[in-house]
Design brief:
mainly alpha; Membr_insert_effic_factor_YidD; two-stranded parallel sheet; Membrane protein insertion efficiency factor; 2 strands; 97 residues
Length: 97
């Protein structure tokens, strides 16, 4: 069977009501709550941007799992650096040599 979808279309899940609700709450957080807190995210993109990308790319269920996993890792004892959203069995976006 031939896949007629482009790579860009494959990367984006159709925005369901759940995804739209999650994105609305994240936008509210970024606009109203985040400015009141100190900058503390150790990753790029920030945790809220990561979450938005995860919801758009994977939908509400996988997006929620990835967001929870990211929030657990974003602490002083966790890692830091470039960390785009990707599902657990996906390869990293680049290979360091």
């Amino acid at each position: 069977m031939i896949n007629l979808q482009s790579d860009e279309e494959e990367d984006h899940v159709e925005n369901s009501l759940g995804v739209e609700a999650a994105l609305y709450m994240l936008k509210f957080y970024k606009r109203e709550i985040s400015p009141l807190l100190p900058n503390s995210c150790r990753y790029v993109p920030t945790c809220s941007e990561y979450s938005m990308e995860a919801y758009k790319k994977y939908g509400v269920v996988k997006g929620t799992v990835l967001t929870a996993w990211r929030l657990c890792r974003c602490n002083p004892l966790g890692g830091s650096g470039f960390d785009p959203p990707r599902w657990f069995d996906e390869d990293p976006p680049f290979q360091e040599e």
